[in-house]
Amino acid sequence: MATLPAVSTNESAGRRWLPLVALIIVVLALAGAAEFAPIVMQRRITQGLINLVAVVGLYVFVGNSGVLSFGNVAFMAIGAYVSALLTMPAAAKGVFLPDLPAFLAAAEWPVLGGALAGGASAALVALVAGFPLMRLSGISASIATFAILVVTYVVLGNWTSVTGGQNSLMGLPIYVGLWTSAGWAVAAIVIAFLHQESRSGLLLRASREDEVAAVASGVHMVLHRLMAFVVSAFLSGISGVLLAHFLGTVRVETFYLDLTFLIMAMLVIGGMRSLTGAVAGAIVITALTELMRQAEVGVTIGTTTLAAPGGLGDVLLALLMLLIILFRPDGIAGGREISWPFRSSVAAPEIQSRKPQ
Amino acid sequence: MIGQAVQVLVDAVSVGGLYALTALGIGLIFGVMRLINFAHAQLIMIAGYAVLLFFAQSAVLAVLGAVAGAVLLALVVERMAFRPLRGADPATLLIASFAVSFLIEKMMIMLVGSRPKGVDFLPMLAGQVEIAGVRLQLLQLVTILVSVVLLVATTWFLKSTRLGLEMRAAAENFRMAEVLGIRANRVIASAFAISGLLAAAVACLFVAQTGLVQPRMGLQLVIIAFVGTVIGGLGSLPGAAFGGFLVGVATILLEALLPPELRVFREAFLFVGVAVVLIFRPQGLIPARGLAGRI
Amino acid sequence: MTVPRDLTSPGGRLVELGGLVIRYGAIAAVQGVDLAIDAGEAVAIVGPNGAGKTSLLSAIAGIVRPSAGSIRIAGRPLAGIALSDVVREGVALVPEGRNIFGSLTVMENLRLGATPRRDASVSADIDRVFADFPILGERRDQPAGQLSGGEQQMLAIARAMLSRPRLLMLDEPSLGLAPNIVDKVYDILRQIRSQGVSLLLVEQNAARAFALADRACVMSRGVFTLAGTPAEIERHDAFDAAYFGVAMAKAGAA
Known about the structure:
The complex is a heterotrimer of chains A (357), B (295) and C (254).
Chain A: H1 6-10, H2 13-35, H3 39-65, H4 72-87, H5 90-96, H6 102-106, H7 111-133, H8 138-158, H9 160-163, E1 169-170, H10 178-197, H11 199-208, H12 211-216, H13 219-247, E2 249-250, H14 257-270, H15 275-297, E3 299-301, E4 304-306, H16 312-327, E5 336-337, E6 346-347
Antiparallel strand pairs in A: 1-2, 3-4, 5-6
Chain B: H1 2-33, H2 40-54, H3 59-82, H4 90-112, E1 117-118, E2 128-131, E3 134-137, H5 138-160, H6 162-172, H7 174-179, H8 184-210, E4 212-213, H9 219-232, H10 237-257, H11 260-263, H12 266-280
Antiparallel strand pairs in B: 1-4, 2-3
Chain C: E1 13-24, E2 27-38, E3 42-46, H1 53-60, E4 68-73, E5 76-77, H2 83-86, E6 91-94, H3 106-113, H4 122-132, H5 134-138, H6 149-161, E7 167-171, H7 179-194, E8 198-203, H8 206-212, E9 215-220, E10 223-228, H9 230-235, H10 237-253
Parallel strand pairs in C: 3-8, 3-9, 6-7, 7-8
Antiparallel strand pairs in C: 1-2, 1-4, 4-5, 9-10
Helix pairs in contact in C: 3-6
């Protein structure tokens, strides 16, 4: 483990930052191109960038720790509801949530404050829940994150006085457009990159392949894992905030297994061992689902409409994910970071598998 | 008053039986493969649709169709998705299982739509019987009977047959079982077939109770039963059955005893229980011996 | 003394390793080992922790696939044999830590040992095990996890022998056992040898292994540094350096 930091120091200092710069350029180029696209397309790209924040959020924990998390959509939900409650006009809250505690009923925070509070609340929940749970070994930890998802879903769906229960909250300030989402996407990429290049991130990645050694190296691994979990929850919380203020409504049903599957599929297909994979997965799958959505609407030629059967997109997504797991387990990115557009890529900081070759 | 208590008890035991069968099906696969099979929900679902397809002809045909459908799907899933991934790390297996589960569900939604369909399966069991002055639903008694029979039969199979012995050995230490000459494919495929059989039984009873089939049926059952698998002790087969039973009974008792404003949070309590068990008693209430450190 | 490249002798050759390399990621546990074992031979491999001994046994048992080199069992390449079929080729393994099935009964453990066999004399063989080890017979219906360490080692050896192997491989059979129990274990191994079964023994306890073996190899850092008869090796100056020297250097570093 002592040899690890050498991975970064071997590269020149400038080269080390290339993946970050390249990924930011990709996001900005995408948003810039969307400026010239029709409004419907702009909305799709905005949604794609929100997905990107969610996938990068999931990546920070899963990619670095090697432990699968089902809990990140719960953090999205927490971010969405906290921001909604803090920023909704008091009048709207009076209508939908007459029983709201006074301090929440009166709150009309600025949207940025609401967003940060949403992310921070998710991070806080991750800290409190993660403190006992992050010491669990791989599969138990995954089950624990599943428990976080179900508990959050049940609580938000039934805490009627605060969340409105199964009903939608409406009247949220709709402020998330192309550049807001692009800005947060860049921020998410920067945060994720800084985390994975930090000492804590590097040590966590080293432990990913060898849990026994990680456990043997003691309590620190639990702290590094907890650190990743909290950062991951913050970004997921932010993506929930963005989604809520993009749609203008929040509904607890949004934040359950289907969204968990979508975000996870994006990460797996892109490649869950590198930040580039997370970004690539979000972009590629958003594009594919949009294509499939249009195919399901169909093309009308004369009087006949040719359309793909409804639901085909979901089937293809699940199939693609399964095929990737079976035949290209490191996804599109192959466990590597992009180094510069049109140039050869560099390997992500990585410890070799212990399995014999 | 006594009558009411007995009714609640019978209700609790019958629901407990359903969850025990489901948890055992999940626990069996976890035992031999260290795989949490989300697709168990779709085994129940496919069996439900088989009932829908055949119930009008005959109940026997519907049950046979359910068994054939679920067992076949279990074997296909094992062969196509999980066999190539044998020995992969737990996170990969978990993702694969999640993907398989979604794939089957979404295919079903594409093929038949997501709307529930009514099934009047085993209407003769809808009646009530009076035993010692207590009126009980016939279907609940049948559910208890079927659960007991299947739990006993599975136990007998595991305890008294060569294949069952190999399955228990593989559940405890798969690698060593192979070193001794036990063929992994045979053991794992058999475990999947049995889990399919258990899923089919659950589906038949569940459809008879609810009168509905839909592509997402089974999901809720599996999520709750999974709680039982964890609480009973991952990798422990008696633990899974007992944990499932306990969770089923607990849901009914919580339903009956909790004040209404807390009743809706029932599942949250169950999953907090999961987290607590994982932290303080990770080997479960009935631990599998020799599994320490392997989960 | 340099390592002889050819350790083979005429006669029925059971196992033949050629240029065996086993890598775990960047770490090479075994870096080019040649070894041949003939019918009826007892071979000991000694060496410090981390020398690659267990990896070597695991490769012959089919558990670990070599990164390079070849393994032949009775002339057949192991590469084409499934893990569960290696025992059917006559190679049985008693792994380090014994790996008995703790939740299964003693009887069930023994029945599993006979998995490859289809003949009718399995229960007679199990009865013989109970006659040789009365304690196992007394506890035949108890979970094997309740046996003492020594009893578990007897069970593990008996279980492996029930497959009627031509080669029995043992990984650290004396590990964690009291000296009088180790005596018993080695008595059993001597008996097994007298039945014509070949032995491949990995030990840190070199003295014990040497007393039993026809030939011995000292392994260090993935290669054989010495090979010959136990007497030759014990006499050799390099033995202390190769074996205890490394062990002590390690102990000093830890």
